[in-house]
Write a structure and sequence with these properties.
single chain; 336 residues; Jelly Rolls; 9-stranded mixed beta sheet; 15 strands; 24% strand; globular; Cupin; Cupin_8; JmjC_dom
Length: 336
């Protein structure tokens, strides 16, 4: 296969304080070269992998974290088992020091075990880290997470929040696909996933094009970048992205923020409930419900229910945290 993947647009910045404000509303991916060049952990990365590990351990509280561990045969690919009844890795709980010791013990092996630690909240597991390694996110509600391990391949998936991912140590290759490429990525199950989000079933390292021929079209729409320590990438909400860690030791820090408050809920939950309650209806009823969703969700305007007194609009009125909690309580009663 010889499809040339275009490069992601990029700009050069000089440290975290130069993070452009427009990035928080951007709709296209962007590489931010040098964004975290002034971080202490990036300075450690210019020394050695051991310097980086020791730096992380300065903040470690000894609290066990979740580790994905796989045999050498998986070659870093975090995926399903052959029967798709489970996964090709084991979830374990280990301390950071134990994971790092095991990882470094195999660092020179041609085919090491895979060690992958993902989405670990920095403020909980590494208090104090952000005093010397942080981005000016402002007052936006956000999560800051740490990811580390050895060489790995994470299948294309989407996230609802927008994302700035900072390469702190090692190199990472990001391949992004626009949201509309979902049909060409051969997405797996909604409710059996390695980490919560549906993933592409295509092996990005060796695409099975006879089995997944539309993946060629996805690649033609894709864009790609390789990050060095100190570089960052902005990934817009709902863009599919696959991530390949290229070195024997890699560390990434990412920032997630949503366009709506967290109390508004997860859209994937609504999709699964719609599958349960609507998908098996007769075709003519599904058409009616499609129109109802269009009216109340996708093309909703206040004018559609202006004839209802504001005090009586219920879920049609503006949703604040109290109303969101009320809706959740009602849904729990309905689902019992």
């Amino acid at each position: 296969m010889s499809i040339a993947i275009k490069s992601i647009s990029e700009i050069s910045v000089t440290g975290a304080d130069a993070l452009p404000a427009y990035i928080f509303d951007a709709k296209e991916p962007l590489v931010l070269r040098g964004l975290a060049s002034d971080w202490e952990i990036v300075s450690a990365a210019h020394g050695s992998d051991k310097h980086v590990a020791d730096y992380l351990l300065n903040f470690d509280q000894g609290t066990p974290l979740t580790v994905y561990q796989g045999n050498p045969e998986i070659k870093g690919r975090i995926f399903y088992n052959e029967s798709m009844t489970g996964f090709n890795f084991e979830r374990t709980r280990q301390t950071m020091s134990a994971v790092l010791a095991a990882l470094f013990a195999e660092a020179d092996d041609a085919e090491p075990n895979t060690y992958y630690v993902g989405s670990t909240l920095v403020d909980r597991w590494l208090p104090g880290f952000r005093a010397h390694n942080d981005l000016p996110i402002g007052h936006r509600e956000h999560l800051t997470s740490l990811w580390f391990g050895n060489r790995s391949l994470i299948a294309a998936h989407y996230d609802v929040p927008s994302n700035i991912a900072v390469c702190a140590a090692g190199r990472r290759q990001f391949t992004l696909f626009p949201p509309e490429q979902a049909e060409n990525l051969y997405i797996g199950p909604l409710d059996l996933t390695p980490s919560g989000q549906p993933i592409s079933l295509v092996n990005a390292d060796a695409p099975e094009l006879d089995q997944f021929p539309k993946y060629r079209t996805a690649l033609q729409a894709a864009c790609q970048a390789t990050l060095e320590p100190g570089d960052a990438i902005f990934i817009p909400s709902m863009w599919w992205h696959q991530v390949k860690s290229l070195d024997a030791f890699n560390v990434l820090v990412n920032y997630w923020w949503r366009a709506t408050p967290a109390y508004m809920g997860a859209p994937l939950n609504a999709l699964q409930h719609a599958v349960l309650s609507i998908r098996e209806l007769p075709p003519e009823q599904r058409v009616v419900w499609r129109d109802i969703f269009e009216r109340y969700v996708f093309a909703a305007t206040e004018q559609d229910w202006s004839h209802i007194p504001k005090h009586a609009r219920g879920v049609l009125d503006d949703i604040d945290e109290a109303r969101a909690q009320s809706i959740r309580a009602q849904l729990r009663r309905f689902l019992q």
